[in-house]
Amino acid sequence: MRILMVEDDAGIAEGLKANLQQRGHAVDWCSTLAEAWRALTAEGFDVVLLDLGLPDGDGSRLLQQLRNAPAPTGLRKTLPDPATPVIILTARDGVHDRIEGLDLGADDYLSKPFDAEELQARLRALVRRAAGRANPLIHYRDLVLDPAQHQLRLRDEAVELSPRAYTILLILLQAQGRVLSRQQLEEKLYSFDASVESNAVEVHIHHLRKKLGADYILTMRGVGYFMPQDQAP
Known about the structure:
- It is a single chain.
- The chain is built from eight helices and 13 strands.
- The chain is α/β, with parallel strands linked by helices.
- It folds into two domains: 2-131, Response regulator (Rossmann fold, 3-Layer(aba) Sandwich), CATH 3.40.50; 138-226, Arc Repressor Mutant, subunit A (Orthogonal Bundle).
- The model has no long low-confidence stretch (mean pLDDT 88).
């Protein structure tokens, strides 16, 4: 998952970023509204973690600006995407503050201090809702993937994967039937400041095929990779 974290407290930001990266997420950190808006106009994110008390204004301004951005139409992709999920992370814990944040368009609201595991659970819930999926487990042919435990089973046997390979598999499973280019996968895997080897995605795909079999992840030559739509009932 590609995450934009908007937080002006360096201690909180560094700790949270490290925790999220350990779970395989790519995290970009901004400390001001201006930096965050530049990031949103340059890159697509799966979710924004938004503090409210920022040096150059209230985070609710960014939320409103994002929700009022023009929506993509037809084949034209616009950035920022107004439908990007937003979780407010703030020290403001009053009922009125929570109501106001949610009514302004936030998808979730978490008061500081919060438990990192609770945030992970809320992120997983956002992904399930976005995919229209109620079951916390992802079933595909003979695969069962458990996002909460970062576990994968093939025909009821545990399969060990590196964090990057696991994340690629999760991305492709969530995009069943759609072809994703190497660039699209890299954008999900790596933050702005991460160094990316030119063949990193190909290496991870190769390892996944060795673990799962060649018919799970297919290549559309010159375009990218995809997992066929599961026909199981």
